[in-house]
Amino acid sequence: MQNAGHIAQGLRTEHFHALTDTSSFHVLSIDYRGYGKSTGFPSEAGLIQDGVTAVDWAMNVAGVPPDRIVVLGHSLGTAVTSAVVEHFVIRGIEFAGVIMVAGFSNAPTLLSSYSGAGFIPVLSPLRPIPPLLRLFQSFVVDKWESSGRLAEIVRSTRTKLRLTLIHAKNDMEIPCHESDALFKSAAQAITNQTLDDEMFQSWKEQKSVRFDDKTFISTVATEPDIIIRQELVPYGGMST
User: Fold this and answer.
1) What tens digit of pLDDT does each residue of 79-133 get?
2) Is residue 193 part of a domain?
3) Burial annotation 160-174 (CB, 10 A radius, 16+ → b, else e)
4) Burial 225-235 (b: 16+ CB within 10 A, else e)
5) Range of the domain at 157
6) Which CATH number does the domain housing residue 74 bear?
7) Is 157 helix (H, G, I), strand (E, B) or coil?
8) What average pLDDT is seen over the chain?
């Protein structure tokens, strides 16, 4: 599940080769409706349907069982990934892994910190006026509630979940604290309790390993076989 643009844009083909040249992996990537050569107009429901259709094709036409499929999303693609995986998990279909690179918690919140091409965040001038900021956020049609969807995925998993969140600290478009929000939502679904930011950070620190290059990895696990992992690296930007 890719970001905006098309499947051959920028470094994407190199990323595909990096996955396939050193392993026996196969990569299935599509252009969402309205992107690349795909017709139609993009919407949240439409992009989710495109993702569901692609995974359904992999399972039922290509014949790849779900326990051999890793669903990977980047940027906007992480929102599609969370929705697609939720669609299947609540129907009892679980995958070998779910990877979200440079993800975000939801679209309205992201707009207050998203910096297209590294410029001033779209709604940042409204931050000092929370009621006005919330008003503008309420007009966002496609919400892309990834945080809530990850929590539902965790709660609905019956046998196995491997969820990995990857983000770079120097991401100038989607700030890395968005990955923290995703991790918190998924982890709290494991603990089945709501912690304030200070308590959660203290709890998370006990489950984190820090490295000299300022990379850190946080891991939480629970029954039946659920592992949620967050990797925060110093460099990578949107190409993490």
Assistant:
1) 999 999 999 999 999 999 999 999 999 988 887 665 554 545 555 544 554 554 4
2) yes
3) ebbbbbbbbbebebb
4) ebebbbbbbee
5) 44-106+143-233
6) 3.40.50
7) coil
8) 85
